[in-house]
Amino acid sequence: LRETLGLAVLGAGRIGCLHAENLRGRVRGARLVAVADPDPGRARAAAAGARAVAEVHQALADPEVEAVVIASPTDLHPGHIEAAARAGKAIFCEKPVSLDLAAAAAALAAVQRAGVPFQIGFQRRHDPGYAAARAHLEEGRLGRLEAFRSLTCDPAPPPLEYLRVSGGIFLDMAIHDLDLARFFGGDIAEVTALGQALVEPAIASLGDVDTAVVALRFASGAVGSIQCWRRAVYGYDVRTELFGSAGKVVVEEDFATPLRRYGPDGVATDYPASFLARFRQAYRLELQAFVDAVRQGRPPTPGPQDAWAALLAGVAATRSLREGRPVRLEEVAW
Ligand SMILES: NC(=O)c1ccc[n+]([C@@H]2O[C@H](COP(=O)([O-])OP(=O)(O)OC[C@H]3O[C@@H](n4cnc5c(N)ncnc54)[C@H](O)[C@@H]3O)[C@@H](O)[C@H]2O)c1
Description:
The chain has helices spanning 14-23, 40-47, 56-60, 77-86, 101-114, 128-138, 160-164, 169-172, 174-185, 201-205, 275-278, 280-296, 304-323, 329-332, and strands spanning 5-10, 30-36, 51-53, 67-70, 90-93, 118-120, 145-153, 188-196, 211-218, 223-229, 237-244, 247-252, 261-263, 266-268, 327-328. By secondary structure, the protein is an alpha/beta fold. Helix 1 (14-23) runs parallel beside helix 2 (40-47) and helix 4 runs parallel beside helix 5 (101-114). Bound molecules: nicotinamide-adenine-dinucleotide.
């Protein structure tokens, strides 16, 4: 077992700040060494006493940095992965791995050449609810999986500057559900996507949609459906259903505070306000899993193949929406 693992966070925005906070004392065996962000205020705030630098290469040149958490905008992921792999650092990279398959293939080839550990940021796999659902399935308690259903609703669309380099709703948002589809149902064979920009006209001007559905056909013969809405006025709504020959499980969290209010209009509860609230524990657990795996010399999970396969499904869904037809994943395979 290695001593504590020294980590740098690359990109100190919404999610990078949370990763940095977790690495400052909430992840066993980890030590936050540096934070890189071109915005000096953000870098300093996230570093909170660790080294704050403007450039990624400054963090990579630091011998105390043994691993990186890539939380920069998605279009920068492949460059940051390749630089970290060349520097021999273990890599945790936020989803999606890249905006396109060519850059993803090059970055993941660099990881393989360097032989460095790699984990992709599909935190739902580490959420206690999803992990328990998977155990149910593996123990045979659902029988044969026949249908998969997953819903992700953001409270409001992210800023346009974020959306411009996000890769569109299927690579940015549905990719979590596409990964869950694979986590529970195995290989996806075909996708059919529909979508509209109903919330924000500027989203249409980016060529993107904010309200989308994806129908799935699994290689096993099972079917699935994914719904993604960019605006849910009541909060962050995420739920997933596994329907099997012997029963079903639903992963959902119905309130943020364990409180129901009973009144003349009925019964009310509150709701998780954002992904940061709903998945706070999962974000910590995924980093704990990464740090444990690197320190113990095991490959972390979900790994490069999971990063690639979810991206492939997202690219296929994007193509399906553009071309108005079902798209088989083997059509977009590299
Ligand atoms: N797993 C999840 O649930 C989840 C949630 C949110 C975001 N993400 C992913 O994390 C990534 C970041 O998203 P965000 O919402 O935090 O975005 P954000 O725009 O809030 O933050 C991005 C940060 O990167 C910084 N940055 C820009 N150029 C940089 C560079 N060259 N080097 C280092 N930092 C640089 C920016 O200054 C900013 O602080 C995206 O890929 C997104 O898909 C994942």
